[in-house]
Structures
1.
Amino acid sequence: MRSTVIFVEKSAPATITELHDILSNDLISVKEKWSFEFKTFRLTVKNLPPESPRLMHSITFSHRDNKSVIVKNKSAIVTSAMPGSIPAALTLNGCSSASCESFDHLLTSKLSNLWTQRQTIKGDFGSTYQTSELTIRATNVFSYGGFKGLLIELECEEQIPDSEFDQRINRIRNYLRDMSIEDYKICSDIMDPQRRNFLCDLAQQYVKVLEL
């Protein structure tokens, strides 16, 4: 599986409708609604070396079993606060009380002396389009200050050469060009080519296009 994330900051709320119209000839089906929540935390500890990274990002995906990915300094961990996500063995040996707590809540409730939340960006009620080549997810993005832009998540479930994947992404970029959209951020980065992890790579791509 491969993914690419595109963020069009200079767009309007109606741009997502225009995207749907231009994709209509290629659609096999329109699938489930989806959402994401992107949070940025800043480390408040003083006297760290100047080169030490101070930002950490948390991305929660409704369409990925509500899993959250924590990204810091090009490393990532996947967490979940879903009931049943705690292995039974951890409860039986006393390592867990079997109650789930999100990582975000842990930071704000128990580690607030170390981390402060800097921003929250959300995409709600996004649309999912299935074509013969890609699963295309699109949603309008909002923050505290209002509308931020259009985010497009592109996913290919097939095992195809990188060159063919790039061609499929370029077709979407051509659609954006047809919509007179040429100014946007795009990321297809892979964290570790030797040990690919789809969800961690996807989260890193969100960070690259959404971080200030």
2.
Amino acid sequence: MLSPEMLMPTGPPPQAVLDQRWLWSLLMLLLGLTFVMRLIGLDIAGALLTGLMLCFGIIMTRDGMQEMAKYALVYAVLCGLNFFFDILPLITELGGRITRTTEPVTATSSSHGVQQTTYTMTTKTTPFFDATQGIVYNVQSLAMIMSPLCMALGVYLSISANNEIQRHAPPLFEEEFGWNRPLGGQAPAAEQGQRLGTADAAAPRPQGGAPASGSSAGGSSQS
């Protein structure tokens, strides 16, 4: 059985991927800042997701990017999913962040023992950045912008790295399974000619003193 590690290229990635190491370092820095901002903004779930992507990226870029070939495609998928779920609330709230509060107003009881409570829902729209709302509010808004930017950069870098690694990867089991041969199992003409030449060279030849079959036949006909 073949393990997934055997199907992955080993060693450092191609030079084109190594040349983008500074972009990966920038991505790790931005993810770290987004992680801190989400903690300040009390967005615990978002901070956990950002922290996981940060740790995943550190694993991929350590030791000369030795693990890049294994995880580049997975990292691209995860960044793409996070980008999708981050960009939707950003688009809806760029024109103003909406907050809703519900407060009970009155509570009455009928003669049949049925209690009725009236609530008031207040909807308030504030600018995306507002100095009067405090530091937590503005840090939340900044984190909402930073997160999709980080995920978009992660998608670009990981897909570029995966494509470059696959382009430089050697073909697997080309000789053993004949994956480079055309359909039908026939070997190329050059390969067939080479095999025929090898077979002719290996065939036994008659001894120098023994007459050929054609000569003996000719002598018997003359007599």
3.
Amino acid sequence: MTRSLFILCFGTALCSVVAHPAPEPRITPTPTTPVKRDLLDVPASVTSILGSAIPSDAAGGILPAWLTMPSDDQIKEQLGLNDTEISQLPVEVMNIPGYANWTENGWNNRIHGYVYKNPPATADQLDAAAKVFVPSLDESGFTDANRAMARNVTAALITLPVQNYSLQFNLRYNGQPAANVTFPLPTDSRGEYDQFVPFTSPGLVPEGNETNVVQGLELFTPAIQSGNASSYLVPPQGITLVADIDDILRVTRIYQPADGLRNSFALPYVPWMNMPEVLKGWEQRVQGLHFHYLTTTPIKVTQFYESFIYANYPLGSFDIRPLNLTTVDQIFQVRKVNLHRVFETFPQRKFVLLADTSNGDIMKQYPAMVTQFPGQVQCILLRNTSATDSGNNFPYDTSGFKDIDNSTYMFFRTPDDIAGLDFSRGDCRNASVPQNVTFEYQGLPSILGNSAVFSQPNIILAPLMISFLITLFA
């Protein structure tokens, strides 16, 4: 019987940890000991009402056991690979679409991504690993295409990082050579790279102070076809839309763990209602609108998100969850880290934040950005998932919005509620959509109304499933 590559992590509350080489020195704050982090910080007055309607870990306000992906050594052992065999595998590069800001010395282009090797794995091995996440893959409800997708996602999760790898990039603008750059550092212990790299191309690439339109830049890695990507040259002034992806741009249903796993591993990615038309309408209406997509999905599976976004939504830059996490904030609040970086990179731009209420971090961090970056947050738009999906069994906390101007945020139910907004005019509210914000925990009726559907096996499995989804998306 084929053993699963992921059984060590999924079968226990704490995963086995295999030592890795020390990471390359990085300029970061001194790491502190991670502590347990609240999943939703749900107060006892709320959890006492909810009772068994939510998993016990969540009811206690504690993040369920943190699940990690298999270590490199575990992957090698399960596939029966030695270092000599791995050294003969071709190097692949995954460049994440980045952004560049204009400085007095030219464009400063953020280049980030992952260098890796694809270990050979049989279909049976991939199927066995995928079934840990989607146990029902053999059932009649799944097609061969579903099983093939699950293999592809699983294959991405078991890639092996290439450390200490030096990178060069060819930049092209409108099909013309713009610059050749050498990345200043080799890849780190997890095969990742992430730095701002300056470049100039006089007479070809417009200077940032000469245009108010976002320009596209092609990025190539010499001799490695998989390393092709785009960067976006963003002028100092204008509007940037930071859009979360799960349960706002695509149907994921993270709050229903079994559905979330199926939708992430085996089923085609599907847009949420008519959101593609809404974003395309904003693109046409707001000149120079910069689209920045924010997901806390691990970098190894980012390619599936990129393909989905570029097939359905306007082109734009990406932020993801890196593998090499060195600070408490990076581990537990990676969305906050990425948000702060893009705000600090473009201090003169206005930002529109688009997300949903099912994520506790968003409900805390997004209103906090208003005070942390005065004058930069033009609008916060939040889909009320409790009001639009009866399967969302978690309350959401609106207390963070109590002390900010109510004209700078809006809770909505359907994409049509926000479709007519024109950010270039300062729009943020659709007056016809009631808000009903109480500045406390809301969404309780949805939970109480669905408490009966939680069977005992679901209560046992839910913390485990939620742990995996938190690792991917929270």
